Amino acid sequence: MKQYKRLWVILAIIMIGSFTLLGYFGKEVYNERPPIPTAFVDQHGKVIYSEADIYAGQSAWQGIGGMSVGSVWGHGAYQAPDWTADWIHREVLGWLDQQAQRQFGKPYAELAERDKATLNYDSKVAFRTNTYNPENGQVTLSDDRIRSIQAVAAYYDKLFGDDPSMHTLREKYAMKENTLADPEARRQMNAFYFWSAWAASTNRPGTDVTYTNNWPHEPLIGNEPTPENVIWSIASVVMLIFGVGFIIWVWAFFTHQQHIEVEAPAADPLSLVKLTPSQKSLGKYLLVVAALFLVQALLGGATAHYTVEGQEFYGIPLADWLPYSLTRTWHIQASIFWIATGFLAAGLFLVPIINGGKDPKFQKLGVDVLFWALIAVVLCSFAGQFIAVKGWMASSLNWWFGHQGYEFVEIGRVWQIALFIGLVLWLYLMLRGIWAALRAPGDKSLLILFTMGAAAIGIFYAPALVYGEHTHISIMEYWRWWVVHLWVEGFFEVFATCSVGFIFYNLGVVSKHTATTASLLAAMMFMIGGIPGTFHHLYFSGTTTPITAIGAMFSALEVVPLVLLGYDAFENWTVQHKAIWMKPMRWPLMFFIAVSFWNMLGAGVFGFLINPPISLYYLQGLNTTPNHGHAALFGVYGFLALGFSLMVLRYIRPTLKLNNRLMGISFVALNLGLALMLFTSLLPVGIIQANASISVGLWWARSAEFVEQTPIIHTLRWVRTIGDVIFICGAAAYGLQMVLGLMHKETGAEVEKA
After folding, report:
1. What is the pLDDT of residues 355-386, one digit of tens each?
2. Is 637 a member of any domain?
3. Does 604 reside within a domain?
4. Which one of 310, 395, 582, 592 is CB 3.0 to 4.6 Å from 171, fit for a cystine?
5. Residue 673 belongs to some domain of the structure
6. Half-sphere exposure of 456 toward its Cβ, with a 13 Å CA cutoff?
């Protein structure tokens, strides 16, 4: 470990410094969050909405699917409106119409531009002025605003109910009939939506900037980008250029000059190690990966189709049982489950190898218990979400057993706790096999880094348990992204890099020094930007300028290591040619090469497209986000989990020869299908929406009226079907190969020969 002391010291400094920034400025989120008033009242003190109404409305919103039914503060689904932006616009228009009738005797839309400009100035004053009284916690509203609020609330009441006049609009928004059946719950949800709009349209005390940094774009009340938004966007681009130049120099110095070529062994070292009972039992994990992957792909196709037939699937009234909010929820959750299962299987496969070719005591039992616990969590959480969205679950039970409403962490709290326990069990199963190897003599840098990555995956789901049902949404977003961002843009990257390096070292195709140096440098690069870069999700979530500054600067560094992935892909490609026995590793390596490509494009290019504050100001809540999400989540971690699963299959079925035609179909179809989804639908639709958001406002870019006036969007959504079908075929081919592989029977003689 002494030869890597300098690298370990640098990594330690980066980790301590990064988490210090994330934690220290986390207090900024707590201290500067928009207040939830004790009551919104009229001029006479009559309560319009109470604090209890807002909290109850938050719970009602969670119960219908929350972020899977439109979005709030830009976070959530992309089909229905962003309710914050939509409410602001409708409320402001209602207020302007009252003023226009009073002053000019006609609707606002019929006024001359000069008169409109006068009223627009008045609306900015009326809406942006903060009337929050910190002594009693009340906000006083004018009679004109109250009338406008009541009109918007009546509109939402009909939209979320089953009013026949709103049927067509519900179809366009992919909302089921009676999205929220209880009238009182609808009134309370309106209170929550109004509060989110109030925070986004009201200046912080002592400033001319709203609680959400002037987001969303709404010219009628002067919601425009702040100077800080522009400044830190420019700074982030400068940081990116500096980072790219610096990291290319560092990488060249540490890897090119210190690269050690090794001669591959005559036979596959891992194939010489007898399979342990726990390794043999991993087949069922691989089957779950393939099954959930196919289910997720099918759900994704159905969810995408809802954007053109809002309540039907080619005429079938699918929304009666599986509405958009549910298929989207399951689509996201299934992806997390099968990707995580692939990672778990890879880790459990490596444990006996690390432990000298033998299982720790009761390891197979632990592997089996973990598997069935995983199955229970998947089935119970899916069932709970179904019951909740159908409206069959009591509101008091929803948070614990139903749908939490928060994207990526939607499952009920009981199932979250069970999942966390499962991850801790996985970590325990890993550590009991690693512990003996850690105590053995010799350098353990690579193994320690691998262990740290595994530990982080297990431990860092815990922040999902920090917030509660009625936690302020700004604070919830802070902890939610601790889970999602730190997993996806931090620890998964480190674990994957170390796992691949560890495997290649044990195969004898790369030196231990090369694998260790590359893994340590990769960990540094991913952590320095990945940890404080979490704040780029919080620019407009009720935070202040320091969050924007840190998020912009450090998240720019997240892109930096991705410029080297072409070299990484080349290295993975060349590995298969180092020995004839590497031939069976062709397809896992091809999937790893795909990871490098999509990491560069999906995480790097598409990620930075929406990363600078000025960019995200206009793009948050548009299809540019799922464009990045699909390319990064599946393109990187999906392909990685699939590659890991194929690698495990290759060793638990030593004589199996993968069907090249079947794997070729799968590989090409998955990559082509994903590319078609992005470039024929998500990206162009996002660009069209971006133009609308910049020129008019977010409310317009997300509205049904805009889609109707832009038929190309409707066409592009239909065109996406081609990519979806191709992708599903790829998932089916992969699943078929996995089933055939697990069904493969081997004789003792065949295994001996292999």
Report:
1. 888 999 999 999 999 999 999 999 999 999 99
2. no
3. no
4. 310
5. no
6. 26
